[in-house]
Design a protein that fits this description.
alpha/beta, 12 strands, nucleotide-binding, 28% strand, Rossmann fold, globular, 253 residues, 6-stranded mixed beta sheet
């Protein structure tokens, strides 16, 4: 099963935010969206998971027309971790993650042993097992982000959409979260702000500026010094990390 967005255009308050963008994510592939703040990454993702209705375009999950399918049906196969995860009402961490099982249940169906095991496994993956009975509202921003990821994992989706999933996280948990996501072996579409992490974890990158795709392909093939300087308007050097051999980027001020 693949995820495809075709010719997506979004206009908000008379401003063209996303301009005729098409992209494709294969099952098991980690695809990243990168670009400066305000380039349209989050708006594009929101149009894909039905928070914003695009003026033009289509989204397909396999053969399902996402934009014309029920949220419940799509939630069985697509998990989402957004940027802002504040709540007006309080729940325990366990209750928050258990909400990930909702798309798989009938109305008023009780949680069963399988659900409890899935939730426990999801909390363990994000190192929050000991937080199960804690109040969600008392958590730090980074802890809340990990709870929301655990909830998405508990959905057992075929695809995961992440809008800057490492926001609010210190470096240890940034690395842990991306490793966990990569290990799920499902399709992932993620907006990322850290270019070095994007090159490390993403199979394919789409580079966006002013609502348009400027380049797409394997990180090592498209992320040149010239492209980064053009998109981000900053001097940089692109090189191979002498320890890991991975691609690395240094910004020059």
């Amino acid at each position: 099963m693949n995820l495809s967005a075709e010719h997506i255009s979004v206009t908000l308050s008379g401003v063209d935010i996303v301009k005729d963008i098409s992209l494709h994510v294969e099952n098991g592939q980690f695809v990243g969206l990168i670009g400066p703040n305000g380039c349209g990454k989050s708006t594009l993702l929101k149009s894909i998971y039905k928070v914003i209705k695009p003026q033009k375009g289509f989204v397909f999950l396999g053969h399902k027309d996402v934009l014309n399918s029920s949220t419940r049906m799509i939630s069985k196969e697509m998990g989402v971790v957004g940027q802002f995860n504040e709540l007006s009402f309080d729940f325990t961490v366990h209750e928050m993650v258990m909400m990930g099982r909702t798309p798989h249940k009938h109305l008023m169906e009780s949680d069963n042993r399988k659900d409890y095991q899935i939730v426990a496994d999801a909390l363990n993956k994000v190192n929050l097992s000991e937080y199960a009975d804690r109040s969600y509202l008392t958590l730090s921003g980074g802890e809340k982000q990990r709870v929301i990821l655990a909830r998405a994992i508990a959905q057992q989706p075929q695809f995961l959409i992440l809008d800057e999933p490492t926001n609010h996280l210190d470096i240890k948990y940034q690395l842990q979260i991306l490793k966990v996501v990569k290990s799920l072996n499902i399709g992932v579409l993620a907006a990322l702000h850290d270019l070095t992490m994007a090159t490390t974890y993403c199979d394919i990158l789409y580079v966006i500026k002013q609502g348009q795709i400027m380049a797409s392909g394997k990180p090592e093939e498209i992320l040149t010094k010239e492209l980064i300087e053009m998109v981000y308007e900053i001097d940089c050097e692109v090189y191979s990390n002498p320890i890991t051999g991975d691609m690395a980027i240094t910004y020059i001020t």
